[in-house]
Inverse folding.
Protein backbone atom coordinates (compact mmCIF):
# COMPACT_ATOMS: atom_id res chain seq x y z
CA UNK A 1 0.00 0.00 0.00
CA UNK A 2 2.83 2.36 0.86
CA UNK A 3 4.55 1.55 -2.40
CA UNK A 4 1.34 2.25 -4.31
CA UNK A 5 0.86 5.59 -2.51
CA UNK A 6 4.47 6.57 -3.26
CA UNK A 7 4.04 5.68 -6.94
CA UNK A 8 0.87 7.78 -7.16
CA UNK A 9 2.64 10.73 -5.50
CA UNK A 10 5.60 10.53 -7.92
CA UNK A 11 3.24 10.30 -10.89
CA UNK A 12 1.37 13.37 -9.68
CA UNK A 13 4.58 15.34 -9.32
CA UNK A 14 5.78 14.34 -12.76
CA UNK A 15 2.41 15.15 -14.29
CA UNK A 16 2.39 18.61 -12.77
CA UNK A 17 3.56 21.29 -15.16
CA UNK A 18 7.05 22.61 -14.56
CA UNK A 19 6.97 25.96 -12.84
CA UNK A 20 8.43 28.78 -14.91
CA UNK A 21 11.14 30.98 -13.45
CA UNK A 22 10.40 34.64 -12.85
CA UNK A 23 12.28 37.31 -14.88
CA UNK A 24 14.23 38.21 -11.73
CA UNK A 25 15.35 34.60 -11.26
CA UNK A 26 16.36 34.40 -14.91
CA UNK A 27 18.32 37.66 -14.60
CA UNK A 28 20.14 36.40 -11.49
CA UNK A 29 20.91 33.07 -13.19
CA UNK A 30 22.17 34.81 -16.34
CA UNK A 31 24.32 37.14 -14.23
CA UNK A 32 25.82 34.23 -12.27
CA UNK A 33 26.57 32.12 -15.33
CA UNK A 34 27.80 35.12 -17.30
CA UNK A 35 30.06 36.36 -14.49
CA UNK A 36 31.68 32.96 -13.91
CA UNK A 37 32.08 32.35 -17.64
CA UNK A 38 33.58 35.80 -18.12
CA UNK A 39 36.10 35.38 -15.30
CA UNK A 40 37.23 31.98 -16.58
CA UNK A 41 37.42 33.29 -20.15
CA UNK A 42 39.63 36.14 -18.93
CA UNK A 43 41.93 33.59 -17.25
CA UNK A 44 42.26 31.72 -20.53
CA UNK A 45 42.89 34.89 -22.53
CA UNK A 46 45.31 36.61 -20.12
CA UNK A 47 47.46 33.44 -20.30
CA UNK A 48 47.06 32.90 -24.05
CA UNK A 49 50.14 31.72 -25.92
CA UNK A 50 49.75 34.59 -28.41
CA UNK A 51 51.09 37.78 -26.74
CA UNK A 52 48.81 39.96 -28.88
CA UNK A 53 45.74 38.24 -27.45
CA UNK A 54 47.05 38.84 -23.94
CA UNK A 55 47.48 42.51 -24.74
CA UNK A 56 44.00 42.85 -26.29
CA UNK A 57 42.47 41.11 -23.28
CA UNK A 58 44.12 43.45 -20.80
CA UNK A 59 43.07 46.41 -22.96
CA UNK A 60 39.43 45.26 -22.85
CA UNK A 61 39.55 44.67 -19.07
CA UNK A 62 41.09 48.09 -18.45
CA UNK A 63 38.56 49.77 -20.72
CA UNK A 64 35.66 47.99 -18.99
CA UNK A 65 36.75 48.81 -15.43
CA UNK A 66 37.53 52.45 -16.26
CA UNK A 67 34.14 52.84 -17.99
CA UNK A 68 32.40 51.27 -15.00
CA UNK A 69 34.06 53.73 -12.61
CA UNK A 70 33.33 56.71 -14.87
CA UNK A 71 29.67 55.70 -15.35
CA UNK A 72 29.04 55.42 -11.62
CA UNK A 73 30.60 58.82 -10.85
CA UNK A 74 28.86 60.57 -13.76
CA UNK A 75 25.47 59.07 -12.93
CA UNK A 76 25.82 60.13 -9.30
CA UNK A 77 26.48 63.76 -10.21
CA UNK A 78 24.05 63.90 -13.12
CA UNK A 79 21.24 62.31 -11.13
CA UNK A 80 21.78 64.78 -8.30
CA UNK A 81 21.73 67.67 -10.78
CA UNK A 82 18.52 66.55 -12.44
CA UNK A 83 16.58 65.78 -9.24
CA UNK A 84 17.65 68.78 -7.15
CA UNK A 85 18.00 71.53 -9.77
CA UNK A 86 16.46 70.66 -13.14
CA UNK A 87 13.25 68.88 -12.16
CA UNK A 88 10.35 70.73 -13.79
CA UNK A 89 12.61 73.24 -15.57
CA UNK A 90 12.47 74.13 -19.27
CA UNK A 91 14.37 72.15 -21.91
CA UNK A 92 16.58 75.15 -22.71
CA UNK A 93 17.63 75.56 -19.10
CA UNK A 94 18.40 71.84 -18.91
CA UNK A 95 20.67 72.15 -21.96
CA UNK A 96 22.56 75.04 -20.35
CA UNK A 97 22.95 73.09 -17.09
CA UNK A 98 24.24 70.00 -18.91
CA UNK A 99 26.84 72.06 -20.77
CA UNK A 100 27.96 73.65 -17.49
CA UNK A 101 28.25 70.14 -16.07
CA UNK A 102 30.42 69.17 -19.04
CA UNK A 103 32.68 72.21 -18.57
CA UNK A 104 33.00 71.37 -14.89
CA UNK A 105 34.53 67.98 -15.73
CA UNK A 106 36.70 69.58 -18.42
CA UNK A 107 38.13 71.85 -15.73
CA UNK A 108 38.60 69.02 -13.22
CA UNK A 109 40.41 66.94 -15.86
CA UNK A 110 42.80 69.74 -16.85
CA UNK A 111 43.60 70.82 -13.30
CA UNK A 112 44.10 67.27 -12.04
CA UNK A 113 46.48 66.31 -14.83
CA UNK A 114 48.32 69.64 -14.54
CA UNK A 115 48.88 69.04 -10.83
CA UNK A 116 50.03 65.43 -11.31
CA UNK A 117 52.46 66.42 -14.07
CA UNK A 118 53.92 69.28 -12.01
CA UNK A 119 52.80 71.94 -14.49
CA UNK A 120 51.23 73.58 -11.44
CA UNK A 121 52.46 72.93 -7.93
CA UNK A 122 55.53 70.93 -6.93
CA UNK A 123 57.41 69.18 -9.76
CA UNK A 124 57.52 65.36 -9.52
CA UNK A 125 60.76 63.45 -9.03
CA UNK A 126 60.69 61.26 -12.15
CA UNK A 127 58.68 60.70 -15.32
CA UNK A 128 58.05 57.04 -14.39
CA UNK A 129 56.46 58.19 -11.14
CA UNK A 130 54.14 60.48 -13.10
CA UNK A 131 53.25 58.05 -15.89
CA UNK A 132 51.03 55.63 -14.01
CA UNK A 133 49.27 58.32 -11.96
CA UNK A 134 48.69 60.44 -15.06
CA UNK A 135 47.37 57.53 -17.14
CA UNK A 136 44.96 56.28 -14.48
CA UNK A 137 43.47 59.71 -13.79
CA UNK A 138 43.39 60.64 -17.50
CA UNK A 139 41.51 57.48 -18.50
CA UNK A 140 38.81 57.79 -15.85
CA UNK A 141 38.34 61.56 -16.13
CA UNK A 142 38.47 61.33 -19.93
CA UNK A 143 35.61 58.80 -19.94
CA UNK A 144 33.72 60.79 -17.34
CA UNK A 145 34.00 64.02 -19.32
CA UNK A 146 33.08 62.08 -22.46
CA UNK A 147 29.81 60.90 -20.89
CA UNK A 148 29.10 64.47 -19.76
CA UNK A 149 29.75 65.63 -23.33
CA UNK A 150 27.40 62.96 -24.72
CA UNK A 151 24.73 64.15 -22.28
CA UNK A 152 25.23 67.83 -23.15
CA UNK A 153 25.17 67.49 -26.94
CA UNK A 154 22.42 64.88 -26.69
CA UNK A 155 20.20 67.29 -24.72
CA UNK A 156 20.79 69.87 -27.46
CA UNK A 157 19.77 67.27 -30.06
CA UNK A 158 16.49 66.71 -28.20
CA UNK A 159 15.39 70.34 -28.48
CA UNK A 160 12.30 70.99 -30.59
CA UNK A 161 14.39 72.78 -33.23
CA UNK A 162 16.13 69.46 -34.06
CA UNK A 163 12.93 67.39 -33.88
CA UNK A 164 13.07 66.10 -37.49
CA UNK A 165 15.37 63.27 -38.67
CA UNK A 166 17.41 65.45 -41.02
CA UNK A 167 17.68 68.37 -38.57
CA UNK A 168 19.03 66.02 -35.90
CA UNK A 169 22.20 65.75 -38.00
CA UNK A 170 22.66 69.53 -37.69
CA UNK A 171 23.98 68.98 -34.17
CA UNK A 172 27.10 67.34 -35.63
CA UNK A 173 28.70 70.42 -37.29
CA UNK A 174 27.76 72.51 -34.24
CA UNK A 175 29.43 69.94 -32.01
CA UNK A 176 32.53 69.75 -34.22
CA UNK A 177 32.93 73.52 -34.24
CA UNK A 178 32.26 73.89 -30.51
CA UNK A 179 34.69 71.19 -29.46
CA UNK A 180 37.34 72.41 -31.90
CA UNK A 181 37.15 75.86 -30.27
CA UNK A 182 37.43 74.24 -26.83
CA UNK A 183 40.50 72.28 -27.92
CA UNK A 184 42.22 75.35 -29.36
CA UNK A 185 41.51 77.34 -26.18
CA UNK A 186 42.84 74.62 -23.89
CA UNK A 187 45.86 74.17 -26.16
CA UNK A 188 46.67 77.88 -25.84
CA UNK A 189 46.20 77.65 -22.08
CA UNK A 190 48.62 74.72 -21.79
CA UNK A 191 51.17 76.53 -23.93
CA UNK A 192 50.93 79.62 -21.73
CA UNK A 193 51.30 77.64 -18.49
CA UNK A 194 54.21 75.54 -19.81
CA UNK A 195 56.21 78.49 -21.16
CA UNK A 196 55.45 80.95 -18.36
CA UNK A 197 58.08 79.62 -15.93
CA UNK A 198 61.25 78.95 -17.95
CA UNK A 199 60.18 79.50 -21.56
CA UNK A 200 60.59 75.80 -22.47
CA UNK A 201 58.55 72.60 -22.58
CA UNK A 202 60.06 70.07 -20.16
CA UNK A 203 59.33 66.33 -20.32
CA UNK A 204 56.58 66.53 -17.70
CA UNK A 205 54.77 69.34 -19.49
CA UNK A 206 55.02 67.51 -22.81
CA UNK A 207 53.53 64.40 -21.21
CA UNK A 208 50.74 66.54 -19.73
CA UNK A 209 50.01 68.03 -23.15
CA UNK A 210 49.96 64.60 -24.83
CA UNK A 211 47.60 63.11 -22.25
CA UNK A 212 45.20 66.06 -22.43
CA UNK A 213 45.11 65.89 -26.24
CA UNK A 214 44.41 62.16 -26.12
CA UNK A 215 41.60 62.72 -23.61
CA UNK A 216 40.08 65.52 -25.70
CA UNK A 217 40.20 63.36 -28.83
CA UNK A 218 38.35 60.60 -26.97
CA UNK A 219 35.77 63.05 -25.64
CA UNK A 220 35.10 64.51 -29.07
CA UNK A 221 34.89 61.08 -30.69
CA UNK A 222 32.50 59.81 -28.01
CA UNK A 223 30.05 62.70 -28.34
CA UNK A 224 30.20 62.90 -32.15
CA UNK A 225 29.77 59.16 -32.65
CA UNK A 226 26.82 58.92 -30.26
CA UNK A 227 25.09 61.98 -31.77
CA UNK A 228 25.60 60.56 -35.27
CA UNK A 229 24.17 57.16 -34.33
CA UNK A 230 21.22 58.80 -32.56
CA UNK A 231 20.44 60.75 -35.74
CA UNK A 232 20.93 57.66 -37.92
CA UNK A 233 18.52 55.68 -35.74
CA UNK A 234 16.07 58.60 -35.97
CA UNK A 235 16.18 58.38 -39.78
CA UNK A 236 15.83 54.58 -39.83
CA UNK A 237 13.13 54.17 -37.15
CA UNK A 238 11.40 57.61 -37.25
CA UNK A 239 11.83 57.81 -33.46
CA UNK A 240 14.64 59.62 -31.64
CA UNK A 241 15.85 57.50 -28.67
CA UNK A 242 16.26 59.09 -25.25
CA UNK A 243 19.52 60.60 -23.97
CA UNK A 244 20.88 57.13 -23.09
CA UNK A 245 19.90 55.70 -26.48
CA UNK A 246 17.24 53.47 -24.95
CA UNK A 247 13.79 52.63 -26.40
CA UNK A 248 10.94 50.46 -25.11
CA UNK A 249 10.91 46.70 -25.68
CA UNK A 250 7.81 46.90 -27.87
CA UNK A 251 9.49 49.45 -30.14
CA UNK A 252 12.55 47.22 -30.44
CA UNK A 253 10.33 44.32 -31.49
CA UNK A 254 8.64 46.49 -34.12
CA UNK A 255 12.06 47.55 -35.42
CA UNK A 256 13.15 43.91 -35.66
CA UNK A 257 10.03 42.88 -37.55
CA UNK A 258 10.63 45.80 -39.95
CA UNK A 259 14.21 44.62 -40.51
CA UNK A 260 15.67 47.91 -39.29
CA UNK A 261 18.56 46.16 -37.52
CA UNK A 262 20.01 45.33 -40.95
CA UNK A 263 20.08 49.02 -41.84
CA UNK A 264 22.01 49.70 -38.65
CA UNK A 265 24.42 46.87 -39.48
CA UNK A 266 24.91 48.46 -42.91
CA UNK A 267 25.62 51.87 -41.37
CA UNK A 268 28.16 50.26 -39.04
CA UNK A 269 29.94 48.51 -41.91
CA UNK A 270 30.06 51.80 -43.86
CA UNK A 271 31.60 53.51 -40.82
CA UNK A 272 34.18 50.71 -40.58
CA UNK A 273 35.00 51.19 -44.27
CA UNK A 274 35.44 54.95 -43.83
CA UNK A 275 37.60 54.32 -40.76
CA UNK A 276 39.91 51.97 -42.66
CA UNK A 277 40.09 54.35 -45.64
CA UNK A 278 41.04 57.29 -43.40
CA UNK A 279 43.56 55.16 -41.57
CA UNK A 280 45.05 53.83 -44.80
CA UNK A 281 45.32 57.28 -46.45
CA UNK A 282 46.22 59.17 -43.27
CA UNK A 283 49.59 60.53 -44.39
CA UNK A 284 48.33 61.35 -47.88
CA UNK A 285 45.38 63.35 -46.55
CA UNK A 286 47.48 65.28 -44.03
CA UNK A 287 50.13 66.05 -46.65
CA UNK A 288 47.54 67.23 -49.17
CA UNK A 289 45.72 69.51 -46.72
CA UNK A 290 48.99 70.93 -45.42
CA UNK A 291 50.18 71.76 -48.95
CA UNK A 292 46.90 73.46 -49.83
CA UNK A 293 46.99 75.66 -46.71
CA UNK A 294 50.70 76.32 -47.22
CA UNK A 295 50.17 77.69 -50.75
CA UNK A 296 47.35 79.91 -49.57
CA UNK A 297 49.40 81.21 -46.63
CA UNK A 298 52.56 81.84 -48.68
CA UNK A 299 50.62 84.24 -50.85
CA UNK A 300 49.79 86.46 -47.85
CA UNK A 301 52.60 85.95 -45.26
CA UNK A 302 56.37 85.93 -45.03
CA UNK A 303 58.29 82.69 -45.56
CA UNK A 304 59.48 82.26 -41.95
CA UNK A 305 56.03 82.84 -40.51
CA UNK A 306 54.57 80.48 -43.11
CA UNK A 307 57.00 77.69 -42.06
CA UNK A 308 56.09 78.07 -38.39
CA UNK A 309 52.39 78.05 -39.21
CA UNK A 310 52.84 75.01 -41.43
CA UNK A 311 54.14 72.91 -38.51
CA UNK A 312 51.22 73.93 -36.30
CA UNK A 313 48.70 73.25 -39.05
CA UNK A 314 50.15 69.83 -39.75
CA UNK A 315 49.74 68.95 -36.07
CA UNK A 316 46.13 70.17 -36.14
CA UNK A 317 45.35 68.16 -39.29
CA UNK A 318 47.02 65.07 -37.85
CA UNK A 319 45.01 65.37 -34.65
CA UNK A 320 41.77 66.00 -36.57
CA UNK A 321 42.35 62.90 -38.69
CA UNK A 322 43.09 60.77 -35.62
CA UNK A 323 39.83 62.02 -34.08
CA UNK A 324 37.96 61.19 -37.31
CA UNK A 325 39.34 57.64 -37.31
CA UNK A 326 38.40 57.21 -33.65
CA UNK A 327 34.92 58.64 -34.29
CA UNK A 328 34.27 56.20 -37.13
CA UNK A 329 35.54 53.36 -34.91
CA UNK A 330 33.05 54.31 -32.22
CA UNK A 331 30.24 54.70 -34.76
CA UNK A 332 30.92 51.13 -35.89
CA UNK A 333 30.87 49.93 -32.27
CA UNK A 334 27.61 51.77 -31.46
CA UNK A 335 25.93 50.34 -34.58
CA UNK A 336 26.92 46.80 -33.72
CA UNK A 337 25.62 47.28 -30.17
CA UNK A 338 22.22 48.79 -31.01
CA UNK A 339 21.54 46.48 -33.96
CA UNK A 340 22.35 43.41 -31.84
CA UNK A 341 20.00 44.69 -29.14
CA UNK A 342 17.19 44.86 -31.72
CA UNK A 343 18.01 41.37 -32.95
CA UNK A 344 17.77 39.88 -29.40
CA UNK A 345 14.07 40.75 -29.19
CA UNK A 346 13.44 37.51 -31.11
CA UNK A 347 13.38 35.91 -27.62
CA UNK A 348 10.44 37.34 -25.60
CA UNK A 349 12.00 35.92 -22.41
CA UNK A 350 14.51 38.79 -22.57
CA UNK A 351 11.86 41.49 -22.07
CA UNK A 352 13.22 42.22 -18.59
CA UNK A 353 15.67 45.17 -19.00
CA UNK A 354 18.36 43.78 -16.69
CA UNK A 355 18.22 40.29 -18.14
CA UNK A 356 18.34 41.72 -21.66
CA UNK A 357 21.35 43.91 -20.77
CA UNK A 358 23.29 40.98 -19.27
CA UNK A 359 22.60 38.63 -22.21
CA UNK A 360 23.39 41.37 -24.74
CA UNK A 361 26.70 42.12 -23.02
CA UNK A 362 27.69 38.45 -22.92
CA UNK A 363 26.80 37.95 -26.60
CA UNK A 364 28.72 41.02 -27.74
CA UNK A 365 31.73 40.11 -25.57
CA UNK A 366 31.87 36.53 -26.90
CA UNK A 367 31.42 37.50 -30.56
CA UNK A 368 33.94 40.32 -30.22
CA UNK A 369 36.61 38.10 -28.66
CA UNK A 370 36.18 35.50 -31.41
CA UNK A 371 36.36 38.25 -34.07
CA UNK A 372 39.47 39.73 -32.46
CA UNK A 373 41.16 36.32 -32.48
CA UNK A 374 40.39 35.79 -36.18
CA UNK A 375 41.61 39.28 -37.08
CA UNK A 376 44.75 38.76 -35.01
CA UNK A 377 45.50 35.60 -36.98
CA UNK A 378 45.05 37.65 -40.15
CA UNK A 379 47.46 40.31 -38.87
CA UNK A 380 50.02 37.61 -37.97
CA UNK A 381 49.83 36.03 -41.43
CA UNK A 382 53.00 36.30 -43.48
CA UNK A 383 51.22 37.43 -46.67
CA UNK A 384 49.92 40.69 -45.08
CA UNK A 385 52.24 43.72 -45.10
CA UNK A 386 52.80 46.14 -42.22
CA UNK A 387 50.26 48.67 -43.46
CA UNK A 388 47.57 46.00 -43.70
CA UNK A 389 48.49 44.73 -40.23
CA UNK A 390 48.06 48.25 -38.79
CA UNK A 391 44.66 48.57 -40.48
CA UNK A 392 43.55 45.21 -39.06
CA UNK A 393 44.68 46.23 -35.58
CA UNK A 394 42.71 49.46 -35.90
CA UNK A 395 39.62 47.37 -36.67
CA UNK A 396 40.39 45.25 -33.60
CA UNK A 397 40.40 48.42 -31.50
CA UNK A 398 37.00 49.34 -32.92
CA UNK A 399 35.59 45.92 -31.97
CA UNK A 400 37.08 46.22 -28.48
CA UNK A 401 35.28 49.56 -28.10
CA UNK A 402 32.02 47.72 -28.74
CA UNK A 403 32.73 45.50 -25.73
CA UNK A 404 33.29 48.59 -23.57
CA UNK A 405 30.06 50.20 -24.77
CA UNK A 406 28.09 47.00 -24.04
CA UNK A 407 29.41 46.86 -20.48
CA UNK A 408 28.72 50.59 -20.05
CA UNK A 409 25.04 50.10 -20.93
CA UNK A 410 24.89 47.02 -18.69
CA UNK A 411 26.37 48.95 -15.74
CA UNK A 412 23.90 51.76 -16.40
CA UNK A 413 20.96 49.35 -16.24
CA UNK A 414 22.40 47.59 -13.18
CA UNK A 415 22.65 50.83 -11.20
CA UNK A 416 19.08 51.75 -12.18
CA UNK A 417 17.79 48.29 -11.20
CA UNK A 418 19.53 48.24 -7.81
CA UNK A 419 18.42 51.72 -6.77
CA UNK A 420 14.86 51.54 -8.15
CA UNK A 421 13.56 49.51 -5.21
CA UNK A 422 15.26 51.54 -2.46
CA UNK A 423 13.45 54.26 -0.48
CA UNK A 424 16.08 56.93 -1.15
CA UNK A 425 17.17 55.88 -4.61
CA UNK A 426 19.05 59.09 -5.51
CA UNK A 427 21.10 58.99 -2.31
CA UNK A 428 21.64 55.26 -2.81
CA UNK A 429 22.93 55.85 -6.33
CA UNK A 430 25.50 58.35 -5.03
CA UNK A 431 26.63 56.03 -2.22
CA UNK A 432 26.81 53.06 -4.61
CA UNK A 433 29.01 55.07 -6.96
CA UNK A 434 31.36 56.22 -4.18
CA UNK A 435 31.72 52.76 -2.61
CA UNK A 436 32.20 50.94 -5.92
CA UNK A 437 34.82 53.37 -7.20
CA UNK A 438 36.61 53.37 -3.83
CA UNK A 439 36.77 49.57 -3.98
CA UNK A 440 37.53 49.02 -7.68
CA UNK A 441 39.67 51.99 -8.72
CA UNK A 442 42.70 51.22 -6.48
CA UNK A 443 42.82 47.57 -7.59
CA UNK A 444 42.56 48.63 -11.24
CA UNK A 445 45.25 51.28 -10.79
CA UNK A 446 47.68 48.98 -8.94
CA UNK A 447 47.29 45.64 -10.70
CA UNK A 448 45.50 45.96 -14.07
CA UNK A 449 46.60 49.23 -15.64
CA UNK A 450 50.37 48.53 -15.25
CA UNK A 451 49.90 45.30 -17.20
CA UNK A 452 48.97 47.44 -20.23
CA UNK A 453 51.06 50.58 -20.06
CA UNK A 454 54.23 48.86 -18.75
CA UNK A 455 54.02 45.80 -21.00
CA UNK A 456 53.20 43.41 -18.18
CA UNK A 457 51.12 41.39 -20.65
CA UNK A 458 54.36 40.15 -22.20
CA UNK A 459 55.72 38.47 -19.07
CA UNK A 460 52.84 38.17 -16.63
CA UNK A 461 54.32 40.65 -14.13
CA UNK A 462 55.41 44.29 -13.93
CA UNK A 463 58.76 45.57 -12.64
CA UNK A 464 58.16 48.64 -10.48
CA UNK A 465 61.74 49.71 -9.61
CA UNK A 466 65.34 48.46 -9.38
CA UNK A 467 64.76 46.57 -6.11
CA UNK A 468 61.65 44.94 -7.52
CA UNK A 469 63.57 44.09 -10.69
CA UNK A 470 66.23 42.28 -8.67
CA UNK A 471 63.70 40.32 -6.64
CA UNK A 472 61.66 39.28 -9.68
CA UNK A 473 64.78 38.36 -11.64
CA UNK A 474 65.97 36.03 -8.88
CA UNK A 475 62.50 34.45 -8.67
CA UNK A 476 62.39 33.94 -12.45
CA UNK A 477 65.87 32.37 -12.42
CA UNK A 478 64.87 30.00 -9.60
CA UNK A 479 61.70 29.07 -11.47
CA UNK A 480 63.56 28.44 -14.72
CA UNK A 481 66.20 26.40 -12.95
CA UNK A 482 63.51 24.33 -11.25
CA UNK A 483 61.73 23.77 -14.56
CA UNK A 484 65.02 22.84 -16.20
CA UNK A 485 65.74 20.29 -13.46
CA UNK A 486 62.40 18.64 -14.07
CA UNK A 487 63.10 18.51 -17.80
CA UNK A 488 66.47 16.93 -17.10
CA UNK A 489 64.82 14.25 -15.01
CA UNK A 490 62.49 13.55 -17.91
CA UNK A 491 65.50 13.19 -20.20
CA UNK A 492 64.84 16.17 -22.47
CA UNK A 493 67.56 18.67 -21.44
CA UNK A 494 71.25 18.30 -20.74
CA UNK A 495 72.11 20.47 -17.72
CA UNK A 496 75.43 21.94 -16.79
CA UNK A 497 76.99 24.44 -14.44
CA UNK A 498 77.88 27.00 -17.12
CA UNK A 499 74.44 28.56 -17.34
CA UNK A 500 74.14 28.86 -13.54
CA UNK A 501 77.55 30.50 -13.37
CA UNK A 502 76.49 33.12 -15.91
CA UNK A 503 73.22 33.66 -14.04
CA UNK A 504 75.13 34.15 -10.79
CA UNK A 505 77.32 36.77 -12.45
CA UNK A 506 74.24 38.45 -13.91
CA UNK A 507 72.70 38.68 -10.43
CA UNK A 508 75.89 40.29 -9.06
CA UNK A 509 75.77 42.83 -11.89
CA UNK A 510 72.13 43.49 -11.08
CA UNK A 511 73.05 44.24 -7.47
CA UNK A 512 75.60 46.76 -8.73
CA UNK A 513 72.88 48.39 -10.87
CA UNK A 514 70.74 48.79 -7.76
CA UNK A 515 73.61 50.53 -5.96
CA UNK A 516 75.03 52.92 -8.57
CA UNK A 517 73.08 52.28 -11.82
CA UNK A 518 76.28 52.64 -13.87
CA UNK A 519 76.43 51.91 -17.58
CA UNK A 520 79.22 49.39 -16.97
CA UNK A 521 77.05 47.40 -14.55
CA UNK A 522 74.11 47.44 -16.97
CA UNK A 523 76.33 46.26 -19.82
CA UNK A 524 77.77 43.47 -17.66
CA UNK A 525 74.28 42.37 -16.58
CA UNK A 526 72.94 42.01 -20.11
CA UNK A 527 76.15 40.33 -21.29
CA UNK A 528 76.01 37.62 -18.59
CA UNK A 529 72.29 37.21 -19.11
CA UNK A 530 72.85 36.69 -22.84
CA UNK A 531 75.62 34.14 -22.15
CA UNK A 532 73.33 32.24 -19.77
CA UNK A 533 70.62 32.14 -22.42
CA UNK A 534 73.07 30.86 -25.02
CA UNK A 535 74.26 28.06 -22.71
CA UNK A 536 70.68 27.04 -21.92
CA UNK A 537 69.78 27.03 -25.62
CA UNK A 538 72.83 24.88 -26.42
CA UNK A 539 71.90 22.46 -23.64
CA UNK A 540 68.38 22.09 -25.02
CA UNK A 541 69.75 21.21 -28.46
CA UNK A 542 72.01 18.45 -27.12
CA UNK A 543 70.51 15.05 -26.27
CA UNK A 544 71.03 13.56 -22.84
CA UNK A 545 73.73 10.87 -22.74
Amino acid sequence: MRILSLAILIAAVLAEEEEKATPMAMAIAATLIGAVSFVLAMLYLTNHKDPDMRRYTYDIINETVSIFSAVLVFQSFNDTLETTVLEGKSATLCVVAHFLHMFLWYGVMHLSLAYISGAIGEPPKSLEEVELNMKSVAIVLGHLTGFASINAWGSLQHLEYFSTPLMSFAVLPISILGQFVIQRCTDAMRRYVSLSDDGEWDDFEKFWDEEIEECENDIMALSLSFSFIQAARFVITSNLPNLEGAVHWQELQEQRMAGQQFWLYAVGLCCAGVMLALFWLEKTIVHFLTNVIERIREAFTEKKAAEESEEEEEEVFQRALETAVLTMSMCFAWCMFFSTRIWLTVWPQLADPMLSAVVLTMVITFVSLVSIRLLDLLADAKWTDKKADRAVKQLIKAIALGVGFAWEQCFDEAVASITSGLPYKHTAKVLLGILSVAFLAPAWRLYLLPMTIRDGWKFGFVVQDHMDMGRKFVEVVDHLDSAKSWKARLGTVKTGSGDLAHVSKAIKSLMEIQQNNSSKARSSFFSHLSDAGAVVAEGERQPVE
Observations:
- Residues 59 and 452 are 7 Å apart (CA to CA).
- The two ends are 78 Å apart (CA to CA).
- The chain has a mean pLDDT of 77.
